[in-house]
């Protein structure tokens, strides 16, 4: 009994400490973020990271739409890390004004950054698939243009001896708001999520819903694009990631949580989810229903419920920096 009380006390104390830490971090970060994540700071003060024993290289694939003021923050912790050999940014039909601002913000990073653009906005799913396909390395982190990878994410990836192409590796902490680490090193397949949904409505759980729809994953480019390409015409307004995960898992693959991997997930008024939350909830619930009914993804069953576009064939332009 005494041990149980002590354990409960320790858990409560740890939760209080974590909340105080996050509160303090937010206060400090709000004050200094404009400096820490600025172009000048990344160029001059981010430490160059050498790993002479590591021969593997990865790409970072970044999807971008009308966020020229934020795109530079994605470069922190990756531009000067030699394990990242290229950073591919695909613009999803932003205005020319936004594109010119991107060019101005990124020109000093041209040693590693490659900027591409499509003239028409096709949505997040198509852009994620195409951004990955533009990478020259077999593996990439598929990153949203308003987030920043922490060193712990890259360290967690490279601490794995081998990478399984049939697994998408997921960060355990979308700092500071979404903590998935309680799920440990769990591997999720289609059957497991279906079972969890039918037993305890796991997809209705706020934290798990953030995990399965949060994205910013590490994946094998060829495996991911081969499976998702047949569905590239679907246009999701906010729930693109759970939609992609549903297709991925339906094809016998897995999601694996990496508890020690974390990144900075910015919550702001111009986020895709906030701007399209009503549509996003409808899309999310439709996919959750598919898991509940244990119905694997097919083109036929998805065409009945989700919007699709016809302009996928348009050219992607490489923009010199």
TrEMBL record:
One matching Pfam family: Glycos_transf_2
Location of the Glycosyltransferase 2-like domain: 59-206
Domain of life, per UniProt, equals Bacteria
Q: Which CDD domains match?
A: Glyco_tranf_GTA_type
Q: What is this protein called?
A: Glycosyltransferase 2-like domain-containing protein
The scientific name of the source species is Nostoc minutum NIES-26
């Amino acid at each position: 009994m005494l041990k149980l009380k002590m354990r409960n006390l320790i858990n409560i104390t740890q939760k209080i400490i974590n909340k105080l830490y996050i509160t303090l971090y937010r206060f400090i970060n709000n004050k200094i973020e404009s400096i820490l994540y600025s172009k000048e700071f990344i160029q001059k003060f981010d430490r160059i990271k050498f790993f002479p024993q590591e021969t593997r290289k990865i790409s970072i694939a970044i999807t971008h739409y009308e966020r020229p003021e934020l795109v530079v923050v994605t470069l922190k912790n990756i531009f000067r890390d030699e394990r990242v050999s290229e950073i591919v940014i695909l613009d999803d039909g932003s205005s020319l004004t936004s594109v010119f601002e991107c060019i101005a913000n990124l020109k000093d990073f041209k040693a590693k950054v490659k900027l591409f653009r499509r003239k028409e906005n096709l949505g997040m799913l198509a852009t994620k698939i195409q951004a990955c396909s533009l990478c020259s390395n077999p593996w990439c982190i598929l990153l949203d243009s308003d987030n920043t990878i922490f060193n712990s994410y890259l360290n967690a990836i490279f601490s794995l001896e081998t990478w399984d192409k049939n697994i998408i590796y997921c960060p355990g902490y979308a700092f500071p708001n979404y903590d998935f680490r309680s799920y440990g090193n769990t591997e999720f397949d289609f059957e497991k999520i279906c079972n969890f949904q039918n037993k305890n409505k796991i997809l209705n759980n706020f934290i798990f819903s953030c995990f399965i729809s949060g994205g910013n994953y590490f994946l094998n480019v060829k495996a991911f694009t081969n499976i998702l390409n047949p569905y590239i015409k679907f246009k999701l307004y906010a729930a693109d990631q759970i939609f992609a995960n549903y297709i991925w898992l339906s094809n016998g693959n897995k999601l694996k949580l990496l508890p020690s991997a974390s990144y900075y997930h910015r919550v702001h008024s111009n986020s895709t989810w906030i701007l399209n939350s009503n549509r996003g909830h409808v899309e999310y619930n439709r996919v959750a229903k598919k898991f509940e009914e244990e119905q694997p993804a097919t083109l036929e069953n998805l065409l009945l419920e989700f919007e699709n576009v016809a302009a996928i064939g348009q050219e992607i332009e490489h923009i010199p920096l």
